[in-house]
Amino acid sequence: MSALKDVADLTESEARTEHARLAKEIRAHDKAYYQNDAPKVSDAIYDLLRLRLLEIEAAFPQLVDLFSPSQTVGAKPGGKFGEITHAVPMLSLGNAFNEEDVADFVGRVRRFLGLSEDQHVAITAEPKIDGLSANLRYEKGRLIHGATRGDGTTGEDVTLNLLTLQDVPETLPGTGWPDVLEVRGEVYMSHAHFAALNVRQEERGKRAYKNPRNAAAGSLRQLDPKMTAERPLRYFAYAWGEMSAPIGETQFEAVQRFADWGFVVNDMMKRCDSVEALLEVYRGIEESRAGLGYDIDGVVYKVDRLDWQERLGQVSRAPRWAIAHKFPAEQATTLLEAIDIQVGRTGALTPVARLTPVTVGGVVVTNATLHNQDEIERKDIRAGDTVVIQRAGDVIPQVVRVTNADRAGRGEAFDFPVICPECGSHAVREHDEKTGKLDVVRRCTGGLICGAQIKERLKHFVGRKAFDIEGMGTKQIEAFHDEGLVTEPSHIFTLKARNAAGEITPPLQEREGWGETSANNLFAAIDDRRDIALLRLLNALGIRHVGEGTSGLLARSYGSWAAIRAAAEGLEDETVRSEMLAIDGIGETAVEALDQYFGEPQNRDLLDRLSDQLNVADAEQVSTDSPVAGKVVVFTGTLERVTRDEAKAKAQSLGAKVSGSVSKKTDILVAGPGAGSKAKKAADLGIETLTEDEWFALIGG
Ligand code: IVH
């Protein structure tokens, strides 16, 4: 590319020739990639070709025609973006809801790092922008690709759309940037542009966006970058991913360098030395909130020193060195018209308040959750009441309280059903065996005979964090299920064959709302998901207490679908069970739920039929090669090189299970000076005891 002329120096005829050549080459690569699954060039080269084409088109708009690859950007035939696996996962943030949570956060950081009382910990505070995060990868100062966060591991390739943003430089000005630099930040839409966009949407007979964040997400994900360009989006840079060289010693410094390299950084960011100072910045930002012209939903605090950030590391999918201090939820008052019952995929009967529509924090709310029977009784909520509702971020709106509780003439107290409104089975509240307490949730006992449960399970199965089948959403599942075409997951994968064999009448493509193309797109989207990641498959099954996190732990520990099935179907064996319980993060409840699910012959048959339709990819097993993987480790006495929390986190990241007490199950005791009864007990039990130095030697530093 470096030998190429600057686009500004091209004559029109040179531009035309080069444009035609590029278009032809890109189409050939598209074909190789999408139709033959055999790319001939790396993604980086491909992106460069596209970027060059786009540059030429920007300078010579007369060259753009319907057949230009720029009109079908990165779109697969199914109308989707390509995927980008992040070089470094994109994390989320833990939340603080009040001043005490903030003090706790700072306390945790200090404890983890083992700081003495006279040591300062500098922490930055900056607005939390309410948009969507995007990663921009630069190599040798040139934008290579840009991606959405996605599930944190894999995002969507929205490079060309991001390039339409005035705040996203295509090449980095200045000097000193590392060869590989991934800048992370928030894409957002200003209030003014949001309002203008909604006016245009309505003029065009399209649906208005609910809030600026949804509008930003919708705009960034337009398949045609020209549409994105029509909707001005902005970008604040505030974090980073992979970097070939360090860009500073502190968060503050690193962000200042982003500014030197042409990015917009938020000028409200401050560096503080105490909890009080953080809270002062918080209050200041909250006060200026209304006049900013864009949405923010809190303040983010980050430990300033990058070497400390590194030591603090992460837990689950959030860093220990940062936290989001959220603004309080917004509230409004409205009429509660009725209370309905919804049946979820685990059979839970959830009461829902139907409300007279009201705007809360810019969003029209018509329903709110009432959680459960006890909650309705505690708050004495009745149909016909005037209620205060609140909404915070993406959380389902909630009823806070009734405002007319002492007025006469209220409706009857709500009579919670004891029969499932969907299938007529008994709905019961079980006793928790351990605590002896009554479960707060009333559940339908109908299991797979309850249409509502099957439907909800199927919706979960095709959902974004499970099979994520494009074009197969709530509406389609409802329709296919009600017609008896899809009553279990495997049926989704046999739809195409049944349709082709004439078993579905009328065939899908002849139905209202469907055509040849949309039916084929759906079948292609389904086929696309036959290759499925182990984590997604497990999560898709919707086993109680086995959500995304637990599915991930199981996938990484067992590695393959066959291994997981063998373990989950063999849980009556004590060794198998204790091995599963030894996985850090997996407890009795999840193991019990797996045992119940896989112990049911009906479920095993269903899984056999499903497995026949899939190729389940193995998961990367974490640290099974580490010398302490699967070992139960206990730390005791004073550690001198790191704090106890840090040692524990490190051991866990290497696949060890850290326990607080010595027992027969303990494999290794790490004993520092002052170790007492634990060391004695370990010696009595013949358990291997290591000094702190020996421990570090064992785990490699
Ligand atoms: S830092 C590892 N800073 O909040 C930490 N995030 O709830 C990376 N967000 O996914 C994030 N403003 O989309 C950071 N000033 C800010 C932010 C911010 C908004 C978003 C970001 C992230 C989400 C987590």
Observed structural traits:
24 helices, alpha+beta, Helix Hairpins, 5-stranded mixed β-sheet, D-amino Acid Aminotransferase, Chain A, domain 1, 5 domains, 701 residues, OB fold (Dihydrolipoamide Acetyltransferase, E2P), binds 2-(butylsulfanyl)adenosine, single chain
Outline:
By secondary structure, the chain is of the alpha+beta class.
List the helices and strands and how they pair.
Blueprint lengths: L11 H24 L7 H17 L23 E3 L9 E2 L2 H15 L9 E7 L2 E8 L2 E7 L5 E3 L2 H5 L16 E9 L2 H13 L8 H9 L4 H5 L4 E10 L7 H10 L9 E3 L2 H14 L7 E8 L2 H7 L1 E2 L2 E2 L2 E5 L3 E14 L5 E12 L2 E7 L3 H7 L6 E6 L6 E5 L24 E2 L14 E2 L6 H12 L11 H9 L6 H12 L15 H13 L2 E3 H7 L7 H11 L2 H9 L4 H8 L6 H12 L1 H11 L3 E3 L14 E5 L7 H10 L3 E3 L8 E4 L5 H9 L2 E3 L1 H8 L2
Parallel strand pairs: 2-13, 21-22, 23-24, 23-25, 25-26
Antiparallel strand pairs: 1-6, 3-9, 3-10, 4-5, 4-7, 7-8, 10-13, 11-12, 14-15, 14-17, 15-16, 17-18, 19-20
The structure holds 2-(butylsulfanyl)adenosine.
2-(butylsulfanyl)adenosine (IVH) binds next to strand 3, strand 8 and strand 13.
